[in-house]
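Study this one:
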Amino acid sequence: MFSDKVRIFSGSSNQLLAERICAELGCTLGRIKISRFKSGEVYVHYEESVRNCDVFLVQSFSHPINEHFVELLVMIDAAKRASARTINIMIPYYGYARQERKSAPREPISAKMVADVLTTVGADRIITLDLHAPAIQGFFNIPVDHLTALDLISDYLKSKNIRNPVVVSPDAGRASTAEKLANYLHAPFAIMIKKRPKHNESVITHVIGDVEGQTPIIIEDLIDTGSTIINVVESLKERGAEDAIVCATHPLFSNPAIEKLGHPNIREVIVTDSIFQPDLSEDRFRVISVAPMLAEATRIIIQGGSISTLFKNAGV
């Protein structure tokens, strides 16, 4: 291990990823007790000293998101009161990110609220992955290391030698990411125009770009219920496209997403392990681990250097 003053602990959301990060760093995952009172209140106890240590807490905001959020807050508070030198929060999936602005009167900006709470409780740094809206970095007054899985996904896609690929952005918000991926794959890209009548529902209204006879590579930051992806796949099929390959960093997979992704016009679903999903045993799912990247980010933070060295292929 690069320092005996570094401690890595995991919340209950994704302990497997935390163990993989530690394996990459050659260290042992820290010992911590997390339990609940009968009333549901969270209890945390660090079972080893963190005094004057650089503490890294790994916790994704996966289901049940509110439980995992409060658990992380209690972990931060416990580390601060135990005299940790720095408290670095590794949030592979940053929840509430879809509420990053007001689109109607009397709505919250929950992504900002989460940032304020994390900072107030005692976080010194945030390490996260493929935010739904990159501008969320500006909601923090502490350092934010915003990583991306695009390099990992693009390397995997390039190794498959896909015939006649076209990179598809499901909406205008992902157009920049789709363009970067298309440039790396030397492929054209297309953009879907959609509207949302309500949460977790979308209607495709237009497709900009030629997809007929092409193999669509759909790139998203997250898949929740899968409804949007299915709409995109079916719209592309109606316009003469081949079966699609779906890529997303964060597999939220709220029910019945996994069932929906068994759609006959989806060839493969590529995701990362930013969110723990124990049931992805079907051949159509490919899970790429982000542990090596998060481990290297941890090493850079402790030893010094530039996080940008982690971005090799995708032009980030």
In short: DSSP finds eight helices and 14 strands in the chain. The first strand starts at residue 6 and ends at 10. The two ends are 29 Å apart (CA to CA).
